[in-house]
Every structure is written in structure tokens, then in C-alpha cells.
């Protein structure tokens, strides 16, 4: 099945002076210009290409990969604005992505970096972008369990914290009290469900809750100690930034976890870091 607006694997059917014709199935032959043809390509090869509509509304192929395909979010820069809307660079050099005025939460300006959702407009058949995410999220019930790991995209900052897109399907909130490390719009990271409220709203954390969080961190610390020859230059005196860089956790959680490992006799805590206790000791 051919999907315009997404990566497809198509067979090379014919060579021409200006490029290669690919088998587009029901869409017929699709041209891939020599400029984007992989080196050494020949008839009969199958190659990965992105399909989009060119300025003449014809299907075109490129081996360039977009920042976001249809059904995905991506950070893009506004390159131009006219009477129709704004145009964002999305990794396809031949054509910027149109964000109609009706799909803008606020008027976009040249040079602005924004998070965009890419979709196919049913009325026109065009591939367009939007900064209005509500109609694409929370369309199915939020069925999550506490401490369930989820994929997050930071979408918006507010006085309460950060709004995030959860598994590409729901809105969630990371409250300021649960924020550590550097967060910014467009950042992708793993998170955990804190709770799903009765009204369906999702509270998120960047760490697991309770002992499960500490158990996972204990395993990560011991594993890294083994890889590093039994010593890490991190301790309860280290900066929050250094701890977050190594383990993506808060200093408070790190201190509790190494304290537990110390009590279990698995590590020693020295002035310059932590050391793995040899099983033979």
C-alpha cells in the first residue's frame, strides 16, 4: 500500500536521463530525480523514499527524510508567510509545509521555531501542518496505570509546569514540582504516569513513584559501576546537573538510592564518589 506523506519502499522500474521511475502501484510511475537517487541504484532495486505533492500537485519522491511524516509531530522553522498561511521547513527542500491560518493557534512569523503536527486535509487532499493539537488528542479513553512508562513530547510550557503529548494520543501534565533537568518544547523523552484523574486528565512524572523508581535506579547505578571498573565520581555531594546527566534522576532520589545500596553492602560512599564492593571482599 502506498502512503503519500510517509516513507515507502518502492521498486525501481525504469531509468531515464533525468532520474528513475518508481512503481507507485495505483498512483502509476513516480519520478525520483537523479539528484536524490542512491548511488549504484538499478532497475529492480527497492528503495526507501518519501512521497509528497509537489507545487503542481503531482506525487513526487525524495530520499530526504522529513522532520515529521503524516501523523507525527516535529519541530520546524517558519520560512515564509503569505495570504494563505505560514510555510515551515520540514526537511523536504523542494517544498515547505503549509500551515493554514485556520490551523494556527497564534499568528506565526518568519524565523519562529514551533512544534507542528502533520496531517492530510480531507477536503483538499493536501499535506498540511497544524499547531492546534486538541482535535488530534484525547479522542480515545486514557487507559494507563500508575508507573506505566510512556513516550512524551513536550508541547507547551505553562504556569503549572509543562503540557506533554502522551504516546501520540493524549494530553498530560508534568507539574513544576515534578520537573528536573532541562525541558523544552519539542523534547522527546520517556516519562511515567502518576495518575489518571476521574475527569480523564493525566498527571505525569519523569521518574517512577516510590520503591519501583529506586529499584530501577539501583540497577542502573550497579550496572554503570561494573562498566566503569567499579568507581563513579558521583556522590551525595555532586551537583543535581551531574546526577541528572548520568542517570536522568533528581539528586534527592539518587541520594536515597545510594544510601540503600550502602546499607545493603553493595557500595561504599567516598568523598570523591561511589565504589562497588567486590563480592570477594
UniProtKB/TrEMBL annotation:
It comes from the Bacteria. Residues 4-63 form the Conserved virulence factor B first S1 domain. Gene3D superfamilies: Nucleic acid-binding proteins (2.40.50.140), Winged helix-like DNA-binding domain superfamily/Winged helix DNA-binding domain (1.10.10.10). Residues 219-276 form the Conserved virulence factor B-like winged helix domain. InterPro entries: CvfB_fam, CvfB_S1_st, CvfB_WH, NA-bd_OB-fold, WH-like_DNA-bd_sf. PANTHER family: CONSERVED VIRULENCE FACTOR B. Belongs to the CvfB family. This is S1-like domain-containing RNA-binding protein.
Amino acid at each position: 500500500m502506498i502512503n503519500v506523506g510517509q516513507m515507502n519502499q518502492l521498486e525501481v522500474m525504469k531509468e531515464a536521463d533525468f532520474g528513475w521511475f518508481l512503481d507507485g502501484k495505483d498512483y502509476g510511475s513516480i519520478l525520483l530525480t537523479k539528484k536524490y537517487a542512491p548511488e549504484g541504484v538499478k532497475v529492480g532495486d527497492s528503495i526507501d523514499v518519501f512521497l509528497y505533492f509537489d507545487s503542481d500537485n503531482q506525487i513526487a519522491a525524495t530520499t530526504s527524510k522529513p522532520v515529521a511524516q503524516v501523523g507525527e509531530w516535529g519541530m520546524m522553522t517558519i520560512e515564509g508567510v503569505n495570504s494563505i498561511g505560514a510555510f515551515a521547513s520540514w526537511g523536504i527542500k523542494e517544498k515547505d509545509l503549509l500551515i493554514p491560518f485556520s490551523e494556527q493557534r497564534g499568528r506565526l512569523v518568519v524565523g519562529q521555531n514551533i512544534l507542528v503536527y502533520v496531517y492530510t486535509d480531507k477536503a483538499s487532499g493536501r499535506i498540511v501542518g497544524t499547531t492546534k493539537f486538541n482535535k488530534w488528542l484525547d479522542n480515545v479513553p486514557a487507559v494507563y496505570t500508575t508507573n506505566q512508562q510512556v513516550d512524551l513530547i513536550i508541547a507547551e510550557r505553562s504556569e503549572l509546569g509543562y503540557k506533554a503529548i502522551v504516546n501520540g494520543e493524549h494530553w498530560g501534565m508534568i507539574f513544576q514540582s515534578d520537573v528536573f533537568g532541562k525541558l523544552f518544547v519539542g523534547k522527546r523523552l520517556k516519562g511515567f504516569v502518576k495518575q489518571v484523574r476521574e475527569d480523564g486528565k493525566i498527571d505525569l512524572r519523569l521518574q517512577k513513584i516510590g520503591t519501583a523508581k529506586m529499584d530501577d535506579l539501583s540497577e542502573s547505578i550497579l550496572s554503570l559501576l561494573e562498566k566503569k571498573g567499579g568507581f563513579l565520581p558521583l556522590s551525595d555531594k555532586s551537583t543535581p546537573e551531574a546526577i541528572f546527566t548520568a542517570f536522568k534522576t533528581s539528586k534527592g532520589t539518587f541520594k536515597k538510592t545510594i544510601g540503600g545500596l550502602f546499607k545493603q553492602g553493595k557500595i561504599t560512599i567516598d568523598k570523591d564518589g561511589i565504589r562497588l564492593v567486590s563480592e570477594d571482599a
